[in-house]
Write a structure and sequence with these properties.
444 residues, alpha/beta, 65% helix, flat
């Protein structure tokens, strides 16, 4: 990166930029968390309107026949009482059930990772189930309030009764699915899959950006943070649009997805020969970067890496002494490493945008794998230590030469850590296969 020139414009984020970034975060959160429940509730509201019109319309013969047939199931006098019982009972059962389920989620989150809450509310099936219960309660209340003395809600009560039976079945499905989702293997698998999806999204960003600067200009403008949080989104379309009419200019991002941002940190520098244009570009950067108080696993793969590392550390260390869960998290990390290091997923097919963005995910993953050796040393878990060495041995055979050198260096340096672990046949076999057999036990 070029050094700063004699004159550099300092750009701070303005109130309008903060509002724009906050608006994008709220819209993204609504789309990902509340979109499906709202659609389901709106569908129930529409169904309630149709039901009310059908119950109060007397000019259509087929509707009269439908009401007569439904009247054999739900009587005229019992229709309103049925709606009232369904509405109140559904609210009670739903509140109790979801409270118990949230307690189960909280227990799992305390044992594994707080990201369990995020997984539970982001799962589309759970969102649809929640929307169904809320929508059915809304349907019952709306139909009940529209009752007239001469038009009992026979069709509305019949529809509500049928949907209540469906809701009870869904309730059983929700309970069993929640139990399955809270299993450690399911939690780890969900984090693994979401980290892969987030990496694919970031790979698209990497394919359209540069890793090193290609500008001949010095730094003309600097954009510094005035907020604290985590970088959760980079809108490359805004940056590309801003650079369309700025020939020779380049934006160098100083942070990557998942990085923590503190007050005064340099988020981006603009290399350009025109100071005024560079300042304008820096302000465009302020609208393209989203900083949130919480990390976002849906768009940041490093969050998944850190969550898996946290599960493996707490489960494999003396904190919890649960090596089976630790091995599951370790194997998930090893699978991510095998996918990310075997193949160049960042090769650009089109000319990249004049934006410099660094790829730190792989380095973060290698650091996390090395920390697993420290965990094995701390807990003296021989089976977990053997599993860590086995993951290293598999990766060494598949990755590119620079990564292989890093892995071999980490393994060689970890010899002293492994020597302090009690001897076991499994660990000895793993070390022998990886070529780090301790001198005191080396075979002739």
């Amino acid at each position: 990166m070029k050094t700063q020139g004699p004159r550099v414009r300092e750009v701070t984020i303005g109130t309008s930029d903060v509002r724009q970034g906050r608006g994008r975060r709220w819209w993204r959160a609504f789309r990902e968390l509340a979109g499906i429940p709202v659609l389901v509730v709106v569908a129930f509201a529409g169904l309630a309107a149709v039901s009310i019109i059908a119950d109060q319309t007397r000019s259509l013969g087929w509707l009269d026949g439908a009401r007569t047939a439904a009247g054999h199931v739900v009587g005229k006098q019992a229709a309103t009482a049925a709606l009232q019982a369904i509405a109140s009972g559904l609210v009670t059962v739903t509140s109790i059930t979801f409270s118990v389920l949230l307690l189960a989620v909280q227990q799992t989150a305390s044992n594994l990772s707080p990201v369990v809450f995020d997984q539970f509310i982001r799962r589309r099936s759970n969102q649809a189930f929640l929307g169904f219960f809320v929508g059915l309660a809304l349907f019952s209340y709306v139909v009940m309030t529209a009752v007239k003395d001469d038009t009992p809600p026979i069709l509305g009560a019949t529809i509500a009764t049928v949907l209540t039976v469906v809701a009870l079945v869904i309730l059983l499905v929700l309970v069993f699915s929640t139990v399955g989702q809270m299993r450690p293997t399911s939690v780890i698998r969900a984090i693994h899959d979401r980290a892969l999806a987030a990496r694919d999204e970031e790979a698209a960003l990497l394919r359209r950006t540069r890793r090193t600067s290609a500008s001949r200009h010095d730094v003309a403008a600097v954009y510094r943070a005035r907020v604290t949080g985590y970088l959760t989104h980079v809108d490359l379309r805004l940056l590309a649009a801003a650079l369309e009419d700025a020939d020779g200019a380049e934006i160098c991002l100083g942070v990557t997805l998942g990085d923590h941002v503190s007050y005064g940190d340099t988020l981006a520098t603009v290399l350009d020969g025109d100071l005024d244009r560079a300042e304008s570009l820096a302000r465009q950067v302020a609208t393209a970067l989203s900083v949130s108080p919480q990390r976002d696993l849906a768009h940041d793969p490093t969050t998944g890496i850190d969550e898996l590392s946290n599960i493996a550390w707490t489960s494999g260390s003396t904190s919890k002494q649960n090596p089976e869960v630790a091995r599951e998290a370790l194997f998930a990390l090893g699978d991510l490493a095998a996918r990310w290091f075997t193949g160049d997923e960042t090769v650009a097919s089109d000319p990249p945008v004049a934006v410099v963005y660094q790829d730190t995910d792989r380095e973060r993953l290698l650091d996390v794998l090395h920390s697993m050796l420290v965990v094995a040393h701390e807990s003296h878990q021989t089976l977990f230590a053997a599993a860590v060495v086995g993951v290293y041995d598999k990766l060494v055979r598949r990755v590119d030469p620079p990564t292989r050198d890093r892995l071999c260096s980490d393994l060689t340096g970890a010899g002293a850590l492994l020597d302090a672990i009690p001897a076991s046949p499994a660990l000895d076999r793993a070390r022998q296969a990886a070529g780090i057999w301790p001198p005191a036990r080396r075979t002739p």
